[in-house]
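Replying to the earlier thread about multi-chain prediction with a worked example.

Input:
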Amino acid sequence: MNRPLTHRPTPDLAALIQPDRVHRSVYTDPDIFELELERLFGRAWLFVGHESQVAKPGDFYATRLGRQPVLMVRGRDGNVRVLHNRCTHRGAMVCAAETGNAKHFQCGYHGWTFGTDGALIGVPRQEGYDERFEKERGSLGLRPVARQAIYRGFVFASLAADGPALEEWLGDITTSFDDMVDRAPGGEIEVAGGIFKHTYDGNWKLYIENVNDLMHPAFVHASSIDTAAKQRMDAPTDGAGEIAVRQMTQNGVLTKIWDNVGVWAYDGGHSYMGDYHDDERLLAASDDPVFVEYRDALEAAQGAKRTREILSVARFNTIVYPNLTFMSSFRQLRVILPVAPDKTEVHIYSFRLKGAPEAMFQDTVRFANAINSPASQILTDDLEIYRRIRDGLQSEGTEWLHLGRGEGHDVDDERGGRHGDHGTSEIHIRNQFKAWLDYMRPATNASAEAAE
Amino acid sequence: MTTEVKAKPRDSSVRLSPEAMTTVTALVLEEARLLDEARYEDWLALYADDAYYWAPHRPEQTDPLNEISIFYDDRMLMEARVRRLTDGTGHAVSPPIATVRVVSGTTLESTADGGKEAVVRSKFVMLEHRLSEQRVYGATARHCLRRSGGGWRIAWKRVDLVNAEGVLDTISVPF
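Result:
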């Protein structure tokens, strides 16, 4: 963890974050990017995957934490583990597939073989080693991540040995995970329908700053809002066009509605925004026939009172800092993976509510296609803006990005968070940079030694 | 609608006449030309009212309803997409994208309704240029063509990108 990063002195990070502005180098400087991976991604809890992706013993899912390849695998003992996907011999990834079911993982280089619990169970031609290897062997299993924890099926890992426990770290934002899972009549959700993967040319932070930015839809999405407004709704559709056009239309709600929707920010950089949907085909509390069938199923499981409580939660995007964002009532989850200061990869999961009507999941798929496909008429305009920011920030004409909308007018809420006095406040971005500075502090000598 | 179209029994014993095969091959090329020339409204007119345009997210995918797709556009969504591409106000589609599609190897895969419908398969490579960047896409396309009046219309099109399962860049135009 404590590798030398650069021959250049570490930038004065605190000077780059002001109450109402952030320095452009935070988005462009390769040294700062490396520090983010070491300190921010090296210290935070990071989303790995969902337990449903590894339902059976031997099931695995290969992904990354920051840039580090890991395997989420359910062992023969039924436990889910997060292991570094790296052979302890010569460093090759032991698993090149993204998903599957394995009896064991055999490295393709020299055949070292690891159990689904990570233990080293086979070394071909071990007579090539002397007796010292037998003593060492027990420590040559696939390395587990420093810490792992699961909240309601969502698997997280931390690359740091020390730090707050997951639930403490999530704080009040656990309620957004609850919102996602509680909506399932069967009490569980599962990843289903496939995972979108796309890149964009821009810094990773731009994505999580944008999702709760309630001023952007009217401008970034003006084109899709306009095209939806002109769409004849009697055109033939099997649902795909209807869901997409309705969502594109919803993005065109008036600024005064966005101001009422609002964003709530919590310690650690986390935040969520309220929901702005009133379209009966999109909103899970409406009288659309599919939702009526769903609500009946939820009532049968939870009773009418609890069902009303569950469906009264109105949240659209939740951000779990640094790189997870999800839509608890629309069953989409996005993981933002930094690749380079100006290159980012995004993985998008869809979830099925167990016990809900099949037609409801089909609407989830339509919604995913509409907003999260790399060919989405909505998403692609966001991605183009990130690219323009990448290019614009090459300008030295202005050193700062402005974050002052609503600054100085944050209001405490009753659950320990803060809320902008206007819904379109940039409170969530300021809140992210407060957490950013906290993560980016250098390790103290004591904690650096503990990490080694 | 969709499942019904896909479930229609295919009969490979019914062949198209050489003239019909020539017409169908020309239609596939005409579609590529209209897209290259950004004549999106003319492109849309090649499609039947109940058509869909599909680019699955994985090659083995048979279900567009319960699995995500890169494109799964019915008529309504195709109309919206064409409008957005035509009015040119979308950030991702302005300045316009220049493309050249090279279509090759169009062969008959199957027929249905005694030759009133035909599925033809072709390979294509698309070069795309926008601002300072050029991208390359390669795919196998399947067109289901339906006899309509004196000619043919596209009942559905499926595009299997070689990198459908990969990490994709922004896709702004249909293939």
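The radius of gyration of chain B is 16 Å.

Feel free to reuse this layout for your own posts.
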